[in-house]
Design brief:
CATH architecture of the largest domain: 3-Layer(aba) Sandwich
Bound molecules: iron/sulfur cluster
Number of strands: 17
Structural class: alpha/beta
Distance between the termini: 39 Å
Low-confidence stretches: 281-292
Radius of gyration: 19 Å
Helix content: 25-40%
């Protein structure tokens, strides 16, 4: 039997439109009652990357979270919300800055913060991820400067608490190794249902400093791998060129072959997002095919701090796994000799003060 993925159009974040679109996306899959049962505890896992406002397009939109909370409650189940933002940022600060605390009060659900961790196969997971009967994953449709795109699989890395995320970057610095960590995390906290917020998506230098696109889409399904495969197809790249999708598919965690995915609602052809610009080595892999590995050695890139934009908040410095960042009254600087290019500093900076330097070859291939 084919894996089902629904695509529903939704032009903007007007509450009633989002509510209807979310319901339709679930109904096409048989209704939310197929996935969530009465009295179950349901963890809703949005992407709350850092202290941003909804208009920044960095985090799962509040109206999408609100609509999913409503759907879960309508089933007679008990939703709660939780995520772990990047780097040294506390969840409380990110929730507050994003307006999630007010939303949680309004819809009367608990917002979780990691009080403890449970280490599973070497990965420190926030313990509340094991307190739910079901998990609903709400990724944001975005590019990722290190991984190419960030979708349903990568969003579950938010289960790793606080600075443990940076610690894993240090232990597994290459994108390939890091993709294995993402897959291992995904296996531990595999969600039961996914709804990707692509009403406003982000291309170019995502996941926090890219260009916003009014793509007007919600994508839903049970299979995170299939969701990421459809996302890739919609933005014009081969699903298996995304390391996380390929590894998850190869380890039989889900379906990435579009011939085995039944798309319900809108079809892929009518939902394509044109000129979606993907950053990072993924682009190189796609352009150069078999020569990508060889050429990648000549492609140099690294983060830098735009001193004009830097507010010296210290979050990047405290989040850097190898202490490569110096911020004081006179200096905001990154030591590229120490830097392992994990791009955590880029993710956590809410002022878009961390950019990416590229050498000539990197620029030549549009990376
Ligand atoms: S670069 Fe960004 S995160 Fe780092 S200190 Fe400056 S403003 Fe803060
Ligand atoms: S300076 Fe380098 S190692 Fe440190 S957070 Fe930024 S990219 Fe990662």
């Amino acid at each position: 039997m084919k894996t089902k993925v629904s695509i529903v159009k939704c032009k903007d974040y007007e509450r009633i439109k989002v509510e209807q679109a979310v319901r339709k996306a679930f109904d096409l899959l048989g209704g939310i009652g197929t996935f969530v049962k009465k009295n179950e505890k349901v963890l809703i896992k949005p992407n709350i990357l850092s202290v941003r406002i909804p208009e920044d397009g960095v985090c799962t939109h509040l109206e999408v979270i609100r609509a999913v909370v409503k759907s879960v409650k309508d089933c007679g189940a008990f939703p709660f919300i939780g995520d772990n933002p990047g780097g040294s940022l506390s969840p409380a600060k990110a929730y507050e800055g994003y307006g999630l605390i007010s939303l949680a009060k309004e819809v009367e659900v608990e917002l979780k913060e990691a009080k403890g961790i449970k280490v599973v196969n070497g990965i420190p997971i926030a313990s509340y991820f094991f307190e739910s009967d079901k998990i609903i994953n709400l990724p944001k449709m975005k590019t990722h400067i290190l991984m190419g795109i960030t979708g349903a699989i990568k969003n579950m890395y938010g289960a790793v608490a606080g600075l443990h995320k940076s610690g894993l970057h240090k232990k597994f610095p290459s994108p390939e190794e890091f993709a294995n960590v993402l897959i291992d995390t995904f296996k531990i906290v595999k969600p039961n249902l996914v709804l990707m917020d692509g009403i406003v998506s982000m291309d170019q230098d995502g996941p926090s400093s890219g260009r916003l696109r009014n793509s007007g889409l919600l994508i839903a399904g049970e299979d995170s791998v299939a969701i990421d495969a459809v996302f890739a197809e919609l933005v014009g790249i081969k699903p298996l060129s995304v390391a996380t999708t390929r590894k998850a598919y190869e380890t039989k965690l889900g379906e990435a072959d579009l011939r085995n995915i039944e798309v319900l609602g809108e079809n892929i052809k009518d939902s394509l997002i044109n000129d979606f610009e993907i950053p990072g080595k993924l682009g190189l892999a796609v352009i150069l095919g078999p020569f990508a590995k060889f050429a990648a050695g000549f492609v140099k890139f690294g983060p830098y701090i735009n001193k004009r934009l830097c507010k010296k908040c210290m979050i990047c410095r405290d989040s850097c796994p190898v202490q490569a960042i110096t911020i004081d009254l006179k200096i905001s600087n990154i030591n590229l000799k120490k830097c392992i290019r994990c791009m955590c500093c880029h993710e956590v900076c809410q002022y878009k003060a961390v950019g990416l330097k590229k050498n000539l070859l990197a620029r030549r291939f549009g990376l």
